[in-house]
Automatic annotation (TrEMBL), chain A:
Organism expressing this protein natively: Donghicola mangrovi
Record bears the keyword Nucleotidyltransferase: no
GO cellular component assignments: plasma membrane
UniProt family annotation: Belongs to the binding-protein-dependent transport system permease family. CysTW subfamily.
Segments traversing the membrane: 12-31, 60-81, 102-124, 130-154, 174-194, 232-253
Source organism superkingdom: Bacteria
Keywords: Cell membrane, Membrane, Transmembrane, Transmembrane helix, Transport
Membrane topology classification: Multi-pass membrane protein
Cell compartments where the protein resides: Cell membrane
InterPro entries: Bact_Polyamine_Transport (IPR051789), MetI-like (IPR000515), MetI-like_sf (IPR035906)
Protein name as annotated: ABC transporter permease subunit
Lineage: Bacteria, Pseudomonadati, Pseudomonadota, Alphaproteobacteria, Rhodobacterales
TrEMBL record, chain B:
Keyword Nucleus: no
GO cellular component: ATP-binding cassette (ABC) transporter complex
InterPro entries xref list: AAA+_ATPase (IPR003593), ABC_SmlMolc_Importer (IPR050093), ABC_transporter-like_ATP-bd (IPR003439), ABC_transporter-like_CS (IPR017871), Mo/tungstate-bd_C_term_dom (IPR008995), P-loop_NTPase (IPR027417), PotA-like (IPR005893), Transp-assoc_OB_typ2 (IPR013611)
Biological role stated in the UniProt entry: Part of the ABC transporter complex PotABCD involved in spermidine/putrescine import. Responsible for energy coupling to the transport system.
Segments forming domain ABC transporter: 21-251
Record bears the keyword Translocase: yes
Sections of the chain in a coiled coil: none
Domain of life (superkingdom): Bacteria
Lineage of origin: Bacteria, Pseudomonadati, Pseudomonadota, Alphaproteobacteria, Rhodobacterales
Keyword terms: ATP-binding, Cell inner membrane, Cell membrane, Membrane, Nucleotide-binding, Translocase, Transport
Subunit structure: The complex is composed of two ATP-binding proteins (PotA), two transmembrane proteins (PotB and PotC) and a solute-binding protein (PotD).
Protein name per its UniProtKB record: Spermidine/putrescine import ATP-binding protein PotA
Catalytic activity line of the entry: ATP + H2O + polyamine-[polyamine-binding protein]Side 1 = ADP + phosphate + polyamineSide 2 + [polyamine-binding protein]Side 1
Amino acid sequence: MKRFSWFNLTSLTLGFAFLYLPMLILVIYSFNESKLVTVWAGFSTKWYGELMQNEAFLDAAWVTLRVAVISSTLATVLGTMAAHVMVRGGRFFGRTLFSGMIYAPLVMPEVITGLSLLLLFIGIGLDRGVVTIVLAHTTFAMCYVSVVVSSRLVSFDKSLEEAALDLGCTPFQAFRLVTLPIIMPAVVSGWLLAFTLSLDDLVIASFTAGPSATTLPIKIFSSVRLGVSPEINALSTIMISIVAIGVITASIISKRNIARAEADARAAERT
Amino acid sequence: MPANGAPIFAPWDDPNAKPLIRFENVTKRFGDFTAIDNLTLDIYEREFFALLGPSGCGKTTMMRMLAGFETPTEGKIYIGGQDMGPIAPNQRPVNMMFQSYALFPHLSVYENIAFGLRRDGKSKDEIANRVEEMLRMVRLQKFAKRKPHQISGGQRQRVALARSLAKQPKLLLLDEPLGALDAKLREDTQFELMDIQEKTGTTFVIVTHDQEEAMTVASRIAVMDEGKVMQIATPDRIYEFPENAYVADFIGDVNLIEGRSTAVSDGQVTIEWAEGQQPITAKTQRNITAGQKVFYAIRPEKVTISPDRPEDAVNVAQGKILDIAYLGNLSTYHVQLPNGQVIKSQMANTRRISRRPYTWEDQVWVSWTTTGGSVLED
């Protein structure tokens, strides 16, 4: 084992400070007694209490959650289908064009995506609200899901699908019973990616949201323009903890899976 | 060959036998590349048929066309008299054992074997009985609950076999089934495969690049090269009576001598092959005309080596020992003739090596009979 040098310690400290100091300050001030964000006046949880009373924030949170769940689910279904066609569909006319078009929204400035969707919704006379945000988020998250899933499908042993067909599956059954369970981890991470993208999107949502529905990022952004309130610190702290719990759970599960796979491999060698 | 008793299994010699599989003028092209070139071939029921050839010879393409994963560009494939053109892979009475085994990693050994039976909508009891039977056949009852990654390579191979036989297909395709096993296990498994083939009465078509494997398991072998069948025959005929230089060279070790026929008289040819060498006299069934360019192929074990000129030998040549390959039970001697041609002779080591009468640089005589080799047309 190498000894921990001063150089390593310093760079580690600086790196983590750079990443987490802003968040740490935010978390500390969310427990501040004072209404002034920059003056510490003792520990209190009153801002959390007030947050729970704030209808506008709670509404926005509820809208955001619904939009994120629905749009990421739709994006996962569509993105997985698109990835499957692109990787497995063989060569068909216009394949290169299609695959380019699926990935184009990845590099498209969000402002342009948002604006074009806004024009479309106005054009077809769709009232802006939850539905339009869901549609918009599905559109832009779909390509991310498709990238994640197709990278898994490329390394997927095609003979597994052929074996399923050979044993009497229709192509759809082969996908449902063999391909999907095996690529499930990629599909789930695609869903999570779409979910977080939708959760923190401000630009596209602000184009497609209407007076009837506001998402949390829009709400936070507009309240901050009137001055940072400790309530927002409290809200942000809650969001940070949710994300942290999610990440920690995911890493524990994957570590456990790796340990189990290693144990299996050892067991297989013994037999 | 038994004069009486059980008839020999040879439906290919019976003009009335109906083939189970028929390739009729099948051509398969991938873009500009011709993988299968106008191929016609019959395979009979209960046969253990081997497609043998180097990689890229089209043997895997033929198997994939039988399974339905590829469609012929031209020509037709019949299984049991039925044109397979419009039949999807999942509707064919064919199952395949994949080279990579293609076991479903998310399912247990039991569920892998049951997979095909479940698709047929069989009852629970029926499935359970059949899976038990299959597990017993491949001796994996203890491992039914394991996942594929929890068992060894040899066990995976047996699961793949059990899964592909579970549905009692008319035809089982085996794509390099033993490629991933080590030599000892391979040999055992070859005999196990033959045993299972005989017990189940299924027609097996095996793809392999390993000629020893093909010789061991197959009732007939098709030797392929560049999308064409070079010869179809039983293993002994392929070895003893190759039809062309490619087959002679591909199967086993051979001395190929190029020459020109001089005298031809009822089934006997004389071949001039080198300045200063006595011409080769050989028996042949082929219609050889005098002056034709021919190849003479003779297996090393049919060439005798001796310290003195053998009195009664028809074909004989003198040379010196260039190399000796000691294989334990056998030794192969490379004898160089004065014209530079090397003749390989293989002898059984019936005595201990210290008693061997020849060593490097010794002058020796090689000899062979008129029926020992084959005369091949160019």
